[in-house]
Amino acid sequence: MRTTRTAIAMLTAAGLVFGVTSGAVANTRKFADRLNDAPHRADIHSVKVDNSTTARNKLKVLVRTDRFTAPPPAFPACLNPFIDVRGPNAGPEYKFVFCQDNILRRVKNWRDNGNIVSQNCGYRASIDPAAGRNRFVIPRKCLNGPGRVRVAVRSTGQNGDWAKARRTFYGWVRR
Fold first, then answer.
1. Would 7 be classed as within a structural domain?
2. Residue 17 counted as domain residue
């Protein structure tokens, strides 16, 4: 009897551990982009979207690009993650503009509608050109607390790159 209770307790604990682990993985997805489909320094390699509860109520997007050690002007003119939070309408609702400054904009049908999300809500971006790592962190309150999200990323400059493809999103990443 005691052995049975111990075995049930151990199986229940194992189920809880594996259940939590598999749920966290589903909320973080990494997408590969075609390599060498854009000029050096503008080529996007991959996009990782972290929409999990472990992201501390923030959406995190990590964009891997070519590595380079040239001064900042060699960086693509802009790196823009587009974020869709409502599926049925055409296009994204937000675009993170990372050029000389960081601005989160509201968009409609892939075009700016003139509205800028206040920087007081705490969004930020950082680049590490030598490592090709570009991180975008957006508190969920800046996006009106979405559930699932999907992302497309564009690098601009001379013949930039789209990840996945021009005006095409990667798959949904659930919350």
1. no
2. no
**Burial grade of 83 (CB within 10 A; 0-12, 13-18, 19 or more):** buried
Asked if residue 175 is part of any domain, the answer here is no
State the first-to-last Cα distance of the chain, in angstroms, to the nearest integer. 41
**89-94-97-102 Cα dihedral, nearest 10 degrees:** 180
In the chain, how many domains are there? 1
DSSP 62: E
Residues 133 and 102: their CA atoms lie apart, in Å, by 16
**Conformational region of residue 67, where left means phi above 0, alpha means psi within -120 to 50, and beta covers everything else:** beta
Q: Could you read off the pLDDT of 48-89 as tens digits, one per residue?
A: 999 987 767 899 999 998 866 554 555 556 889 999 998 777
What pTM value is reported for the model? 0.79
pLDDT, one tens digit per residue, over 5-36 is 544 444 444 443 333 333 445 799 999 998 88
DSSP 138: E
Contact 83, 105 (CB under 8 A): no
Position 95 in a domain: yes
Inter-residue contact 66 to 45 (CB < 8 Å):
yes
